[in-house]
Design goal:
By secondary structure, the protein is α/β, with parallel strands linked by helices. It has two domains: about 250 residues, 3-Layer(aba) Sandwich (Rossmann fold); about 130 residues, 3-Layer(aba) Sandwich (Rossmann fold), CATH 3.40.50. The chain contains 15 helices and 16 strands. α14 links the parallel β13 and β14. α2 packs parallel to α8, α4 runs parallel beside α6 and α8 packs across α11.
């Protein structure tokens, strides 16, 4: 049997403990390490084990938090909103139809400028399905939440911790997204930082004087006249413009502290000789990584920050590409139109800048496997006679 203590002594991640965790359990572990103090919960597959594990942690005294079972996802987010108004550090999780049901409250939370971190385990809705799909979260892009997508259980844990820095600095809620089952229910090696190390990085939540206070009553959510409303939106817009730089900055500082750096995106093999760049999110990225040894002409633009879309970082990453390079987003979402969300965002980012050949690829929706063979088919299609929109393995 391998000696865990010896493993700890030989790796670069000091002040960490090695564990084998599924993505959902990594999310729960991160919420504990971040010292979330209020957790409203309602079960929905495939996120249920996140809130179940948090329930266990609270019940056993492993975590000091208030845990409340609610009667629906709408109620979950309403309770989260109230706790955030009172100045509590809030965490919860949902999936698919639950996120859709909470849509109204998502708008309220962001417009109230309430800091919180929520984990969404991406799945579709109708036809009824509980496997991996990003249509649920991507359909919420215009609710005003920051959205960050994760590839591994380690990234889930690390991103949730980082997200509390971002949300509490900017007062904009953050949604951390992971793929159903491929990530939520798959066990991986995860380095879990010691509580003291996380405490050094993430200080206790500070109140800003706008919270609910029974001794100093105030009205929240009253009718706002047009001039004041526009002033409010302008202030929010200015803070939203800070998100991209802050995600990069916090990710770098996290790397200095924990030994694992992050940013708004990650580039792999993007050079002056790259012919095809797959734009990916989450677990499909891992599959594309696996074929690069056989395809040195292929690169990856892995997008972590989907909303607000990191235009500056994308343009910087692609500036080395030749003009004849192909950009090919891989969409694990279908939003009822011609193109998927990644293609829409990439076109907006590149508008008025550089012109590349761009082809949109639908693959892996509803949890359908995207294997290395599927990626090989994409490369062949892009090299032969690509259509503007490509469906792979859909028969």
């Amino acid at each position: 049997m391998t000696d865990v203590k010896n493993i700890q002594n030989t790796v670069k991640f000091k002040r960490h403990k090695p564990k084998i965790l599924k993505g959902n359990f990594a999310a729960a572990e991160a919420a504990k390490l971040a010292k979330a103090g209020f957790i409203p919960a309602y079960p929905i597959t495939p996120q249920t084990t996140i809130v179940e594990e948090l329930s266990r942690k609270v019940a056993t005294g492993e975590m000091d938090a208030t845990y409340i079972n609610m009667d629906s996802e709408h109620s979950v987010f309403a309770a989260a909103m109230g706790a955030a108004m009172a100045g509590e550090r809030v965490f919860t999780a949902t999936s698919g139809q639950g996120l859709f049901y909470a849509h109204e409250v998502l708008h309220a939370i962001s417009h109230f400028r309430l800091p919180m971190v929520v984990c969404n385990v991406g799945r579709p809705s109708i036809p009824w399905n509980i496997w991996a799909d990003q249509s649920d979260s991507l359909a919420q892009r215009d609710t005003g939440w920051v959205q960050i997508y994760t590839e591994t259980s380690q990234e889930v844990l690390d991103t949730i911790i980082q997200s509390y820095i971002i949300t509490e600095e900017l007062d904009i809620p953050v949604m951390v997204v992971l793929d159903a089952f491929y990530l939520s229910h798959t066990s991986e090696n995860v380095w879990v930082p010691d509580q003291e190390l996380v405490d050094e990085f993430l200080p206790p939540k500070k109140k800003k004087g706008v919270e609910i206070d029974g001794y100093h009553p105030k009205a929240i959510g009253g009718l706002v006249p047009p001039d004041d409303y526009e002033t409010f939106e302008y202030a929010w817009w200015k803070d939203a413009l800070k998100v991209e730089d802050m995600v990069n900055e916090v990710g770098n500082k996290f790397g200095e502290k924990f030994g694992r750096s992050y940013g708004a995106l990650e580039t792999v093999n993007i050079t002056k000789d790259t012919k095809i760049v797959f734009v990916t999110t989450s677990t499909i990225t891992t599959t594309v990584r696996g074929i690069l040894d056989n395809h040195p002409e292929v690169g990856i633009l892995k997008i972590r920050l989907i909303k607000p879309f990191p235009k500056k970082t994308v343009l910087e990453a692609l500036k080395v590409l030749p003009d004849n390079a192909i950009i090919a987003p891989i969409e694990r979402n279908f939003l009822g139109g011609k193109e998927g969300a990644l293609m829409q965002e990439m076109k907006r980012a590149l508008y008025g800048e550089r012109q590349f050949k761009m082809y949109d690829i639908y693959a892996g929706m509803g949890g359908k496997d995207v294997s290395p063979t599927t990626i090989e088919k994409m490369i062949k299609k892009l090299n032969d006679n690509p259509e503007e929109v490509i469906w792979i393995d859909f028969e």
